Amino acid sequence: MSTQTRLSLLACHTDEELLGTAFLYPLPDKIGDVWLALRREYHGVTGSKANLPYSGLLTVLRATGYTCASLYPTSKTDPPKFLATSRPLDRDDLHAAIVLWEQALLQTDADRFSFAYQSQIADLIAGTTPEKTPLWEQFTGNGTCIDAPGWAWRAASWAVASRLATRSWEIDGQTVRFRADLAGCLQVWDPELLWKNSWGAAYGDGDGESAGEEDAAWKTRTHHATLRLEVAVNSHPGLRSPVATVQPRVSRLSNTLKSARTAWFAPRDPNGPLIKLELSGRGEHTHLDHTTRLALDAWTRLHGENVFPRTADETEFLSPSACDLTGTPGALRALIPFAGTFSIGKGDGMHARRELARWARNTLGQPLVHAHQIAGRPFGSRRTTTDGRDNLLLDDPRLGEIIAATGRQRLRFLVLYRHQSERTRMQRLLAYHFNRPDLAAAGMPENTTVALNDHVEAYLQLADDLLRHGDHHWQRPALARQLHGLDASEDTRLLALCETEYDAKAWTRQRRASRKPDATVDNPYDLDAKPHAVRELARLGVLTQFLTPHKPGRRNPRKKARDITTALDQLGSELAGDHRGHMAVADLHRTAGLAHPRLTDALAYGPNGLKEPLVHVGIHLREQRGQRRGPATEPPRLMWTLVALVPRDGGLWQTLAYLRDEDSPGGTWIDYATANTLHRARRLPDGRRRDAQLPRSIDRALFDLGDHAGTATGYIVYVSGDQARSIWPLLANRHQGRIPEGDGTLDERPALPGFTLPTGQRPRAVLRVTAGSEHVASPALVEHLNHSDESTAETQERKLATGVFLMEGTTSTFILCNLPQQYTGGSRYARAGEKYTRWASTSAEEQAETWYSHTATEISVLHLPDGHAPLTYGLAAARLCDHALHFNYRTRYPAPIHLGTQMDKDHWEYRRTVDADSEAED
To answer: Cα separations (Å) of 354 from 5, 505, 853?
Structure first.
C-alpha cells in the first residue's frame, strides 16, 4: 500500500461544453476610418488625447444584453475590427445603445439626446450579422501551455460565472444564491444573507478610544458584509485546457458613497446582472468615473431606470441624498473605501473554502485542479527564537565573521528616545538580545559607548526634538547632525533604534477630518517625524528602525512556561510579550545585512538540495502609484530592486544590493546595508517604463554581478511574477515552451532576465515566484490517499498542509502551501472558520475577527540546465521562503526577493507611491 497527500485548489478544469459558444460580429473594413473620425471629434469636444472610452460602451451592451461583450482590438492606432458577445444582441437594442453612448461621449445636452441621432458606427455594427463559433476553438496550444485572444478569456470567465450562478449553495442550513455582475463575478445579494454586526455587540465598552470615529453612534451602527466570488478563466503551466479559478472575498459594505471607489447597482429585473460602478474623488467631491458616467448616461435613457435617487430640488446626476446608504443595503451598495472601524473582519475561513470547492466542482461538473505533495521532508530546521531572541545567530562564535561579511567589522546601535520608559525598554531589549542581562539591571549610561560584546556596541541619547511629530521639519537636518555617537570609525556600521508614537486608527480619523473644507486639524502624516528622520539620518550614514509603544497582549494559553535558570531567562520571560520590540531588533539585523551560515545547510538539505555554491538573485518589481502614479492614460512605471545572496568561504553569506545611478541607466553592486543607506538618503526613483531599456538595464546589472560572485559556480534568478510577466516573454504562461533565439530574445525581446548576456554568463536557472494574486488559486482541500492498488484509493480528509506540492500536468511548477502565522497563534479566535462559515457563527466578537485560510506561493522553474531536475531549483525557492533570515515564519517570496521588497518599503517616500485609500476587501 502506498500513501500520498493531495492538495486540491479552488479551481476547476473546463471543457468545450462548459465554455459554450461566442458570437462574433466582424465589422466592415470602412469602420476603421469611422472610429478614427469619432476619436477626432471626441478630442475636439473634450480636449482629451486619450483613446476612446470603449469600456463605457461595453458596459451598456453587457447590461442591456445580459452578455459578455468585448471589442477587439482597442488601441489608438488599431481601432476595433469585431465585437464578441456571449449571446446575440437584439439589433434595435444594439443600435440604440451605441447611439446613446456616442451622444454621451460627445457631451450632448441632456434635452437633446435622441434615438434618431445619426451614427455611422451604430449603423455599421448593428447591421452586421453575428457568426456563432465554439469558444473552445479560440484556445490553442503554444509550447507547453495555451493561448487565446483577450476577449476569449473574458467570455470564458463569463460562461463559468453564469453557470455557477444557476445553482444555489447549501451551507450551514442556508440556501445561498449568487448574482453575477458585469465583470463576471458573483455576489451574495439577498439582504437576509448578508453578515451584520456592530462594534458595541462585538467589544462592548472596552474599546471606545480605539474606534477611530468622531460621533457617538459608531458603537451601535450596524455594519454589513457579503461574500463575493471573483471568477476568472486563465491558463496554467503544463495544462492544455483553460482553468476556472474562484477567489472568495469578504466585501465590507459602506454606509455612504462618499470616498467610495467601487459600487454596484441592481436593476429591477432580478435576472439582470449587477452594474458595477467606478467612482473617484473624496468626500463631497466624490463623482463617477468618466467611463462609468458615459455608460450610465446611455443605460438610464435606454431602460428608463435611475441608478441614483434624488429629491425634487436636486438636479445632479449623483445627488448628495444618493450618497446616503445607511440602513439595510438596497439596490445600490458600495465597498468601504478604507479599513477603519468595522465590526466584520476579513477572510472567509478554512471551512468555507473547502465547501466552495466542492460546490464549484459539482456545479461545473469538472474536477478540481490537483497538486501532489513532494515525498520526503522538503525542509530542514528553520530559524527559531527563544522568547524573541535568535540564539543561533547571536551566540554563534563566528558572529564577528558574519558581521565582517556585511562589509563592516562592528555594529553600533544608536538608541534615540523621547521618554524614559521607552529608553528603559530599548535598553532591556538590546541587553537581552546580546546576552547582557547585567546591563538591563544596572542600566546603560547616557552619551557613552557601551560594549554589548566584542563586535557590537550601544550609544543611548535623548533626541526629543528630532523624533517629535510637528511642522518643524526644516529643523530636523540640523537636529540630526547634532547627535552624538556619529563619529564612529569607518569599519563600524551605524544603526538607530528610535522611539516613535503612532496610532493607526487615530491617525486615520484625523487624516479624514483634515480633508474636510472646515478642517481645524492637520493631516498627521504631514507632521510625521519618521520620514524626515529616516532621510536625514541616512544622509549621515545611519540606518533607522522605529519602535512603537508596547501594548501588552493576551498570553498564549497553550504555550508552556519556560524554566527560569539564568538571568537571561528571567529577562527573556519579562520581554516575551514585546513582539514589536523583538521584531524591530531583528529587522535592524536584516537591514545590516546579517545572514547566518545555517542558510547553507537549509539549501543543501536532503537528496534534492543544492550541493554547490550558487548566488541567489531576487528581482522585485512594483507599480508606482499614489502620488507618483503619473498620467492615468499611461501604464504605471515600475520600481525595481535587485538583491543577491552571495556565498563566501566557510559557509558565510554576503548580501548585496544593486544601487542605481541617479542620472544614468547604470548602477553599482554594494553591500546591502550601504545600499539601503544611500537609497534612503535620496528620493525614490520615478521608476522605469515598460520598454526595452528596463530588461537591458537588469541584464547589465547581472553582468556586473560576476565581479562579486567569488567562488560561486553560477547564479539563480528569482522574479516576483505579479508585475514581471509583461517584461520578459517567457514569464508569461502563453509563451512557455517556446525556444528563444540564439541571442536570448523571443519576438525581438529579452526572453528572460540575463538572457541577452553571453551564454556562459546567463543564469543557471530562472524561477517565477507568484504569491497572493489572482494568478494563483487558493488551496481548498487536503486529502490523504491510501492506494491499495493502481485503480483504487481510500481518501481521508486532512485539515492543514504546509508542504511543497507538484502541480498536475507539469514537472516544473510547484505550490508552496502556507498556513498564516496567526492561525497557529494563541488568540481566542485564531482558528475561526475552521469548522463552519460566518453564517453559522453566533458570536459577535468572532465575526469581528479575521478568519484565516491557506495561502499559496506558486513557483515555476522556467529555465534550468539540461539534465537537471526542476525539483532541485523549486525546492531551493521554497526553502528560501521557509528559512526566513530574520523572521520566525515563512515569507511570501524567497529571501532575495523579500529583501528587495523590504528595501523598497523602508524608503521614506514609499507610502506616497502606493494607493493610500485601498478598498478594505480581503
So the answer is: 16, 34, 10
